[in-house]
Write a structure and sequence with these properties.
about 80% helix, single chain, Growth Hormone, Chain: A
Length: about 475
């Protein structure tokens, strides 16, 4: 215990902040890249990369390419998770950074269907596969790095910065599209304006590399390396020792259904001509922007709350409430009520979903020991998110343009998934008072609450003093 406390005190003033900044900027880049693709897939790719003979099939095909990136994520998780647990957290995060940045820039250089025919969607899918492979190691690697640098009693707070970066990346993605969609003519935007956000990813790529190279490898991994305890086959070890927790993480990761509803299917439902809703593209883009701005503000507070009351309750409550609000969000779109859609977006996406979103970066890696932490989290989380990534095409298939009760149909599927997530979260061991060295040990005993509160207050005071 003394070692844990000393480690936390040391890194609370130096490497903890650098690790949090590295996780933030890296996740912002990865998900800026990922979500500019998602936005383009919903708004303009159906017209650019697929035949226009059938609008419905073009929408389904375009959203399916979004899902294809998730299909590659489990493969990336096996490879990058192995690398993170055998070669270190810092190394795997640099690999993720460059793969994602370069593949995204390449999307901005692609020819369209009208220029090269079927080769256009083939190249699009290929680059999407590289994106999916790269992003598979980002959150698990960043969360593990921050968690292992964070002082005891503040792991939830600092780990939440990984997801704050994700939300910031989404804000940046939509914010780049907004002035382009608003000020450019439709012909210019569809011709070349859409390429600008993809090419701009080089700026964040350079910033991420500069920050990440300054972060030291985590003491927990370094200690494992020093004592020759790094596993040769972390994938095998993770499945053998932690299969039940990997199953929980996989099920909980189905909560990705909420961003799918909010930013992917919601966008297609609102703006695609086949649905007949008729939201303007630039107007609709403000909905996820505002929701994510609220999320950026809320996430650290929820992460801090999870250090006080535990991980499971915020996860479960946030999941179910977000599922319930999906009905209202889709209904607001269906009646073309922009102010109501904004309000529901703020509640669903910006506030209650953060009960899950801000907590899982600490909750997931705390289920696993150091030797298999990146692997166990990466494989399970990416399998879960791969399943939910197929939902946009499913939603369009079960609630296609011209069908009735679209909010009820899609909302019911969403709520059912979030209820299952809440049950899985509540079945897990509570881990916020378990010291770092004991994480993943089913027999580990949490620190006494009074002692934990004292140590947490000490860590907060130490960080405030160092900042002053």
């Amino acid at each position: 215990m003394a070692a844990d406390i000393a480690l936390g005190a040391h890194h609370g003033t130096g490497q903890t902040r650098k690790a949090a900044a590295s996780g933030w900027i890296g996740s912002a880049l990865e998900y800026y890249d990922f979500f500019i693709y998602a936005t383009a897939a919903a708004l303009i790719f159906p017209q650019l990369f697929f035949p226009e003979d059938s609008p419905k099939m073009a929408i389904i095909a375009s959203l399916a390419t979004y899902g294809v990136g998730y299909v590659m994520r489990p493969i990336g998780a096996f490879v990058l998770g192995h690398w993170g647990d055998t070669h270190g957290r810092k190394n795997v995060l640099l690999i993720c950074l460059f793969l994602m940045g370069l593949s995204t820039m390449a999307v901005g250089l692609l020819p369209t269907y009208h220029q090269v025919g079927i080769l256009a969607p083939v190249l699009l899918v290929l680059l999407r596969l590289i994106q999916g492979f790269a992003v598979a190691g980002e959150i698990s690697g960043a969360s593990s790095m921050i968690l292992e640098h964070a002082p005891f009693g503040r792991r939830g707070f600092f780990s939440s910065f990984t997801l704050q970066g994700v939300q910031a990346g989404q804000i940046l993605a939509a914010a780049v599209f907004l002035p382009l969609a608003h000020y450019m003519s439709p012909d210019s935007f569809n011709s070349w304006g859409w390429r600008i956000p993809f090419l701009l990813s080089v700026v964040v790529l350079i910033a991420g590399w500069i920050i990440r190279r300054e972060v030291e490898e985590t003491p927990a991994f370094t200690e494992e390396s020093t004592h020759h305890a790094v596993p040769k086959a972390p994938v095998v070890q993770a499945f053998r020792e932690s299969w039940a927790d990997m199953l929980r993480v996989g099920i909980c990761s189905l909560m990705n259904v909420i961003p799918v509803v909010a930013t992917i299917f919601g966008a297609a439902y609102a703006v695609q001509p086949g649905y007949g809703i008729g939201f303007q593209k630039d107007v609709y883009l403000w909905i996820p922007v505002v929701g994510n701005i609220v999320a950026v503000l809320v996430i650290p507070y929820v992460g801090n709350l999870s250090d006080r009351i535990g991980r499971r309750l915020p996860m479960a409550v946030g999941s179910v409430l977000a599922g319930l609000l999906s009905f209202a969000y889709l209904y607001a779109i269906s009646i073309h009520n922009v102010p109501l859609a904004f309000v529901i977006s703020l509640l669903m996406w910006g506030v209650v979903y953060q009960g899950y979103n801000a907590v899982f970066p600490s909750f997931y890696p705390e289920m696993f020991p150091t030797r298999t932490r990146v692997t166990g989290m990466a494989i399970a989380q990416n399998i879960g998110t791969m399943i939910t990534a197929l939902l946009p095409a499913l939603f369009v298939a079960v609630a296609p343009p011209g069908s009735h009760n679209i909010p009820l149909t899609v909302g019911a599927i969403t709520l059912a998934i979030t209820v299952v997530v809440a049950i899985a979260a509540m079945s897990a061991r509570e881990s916020f008072r378990v010291r770092l060295a004991d994480l993943g040990n089913k027999q580990a005993r949490p620190v006494d609450k009074d002692e934990y509160d004292r140590l947490r207050a000490q860590a907060i005071a130490g960080a405030a003093l160092a900042k002053a």
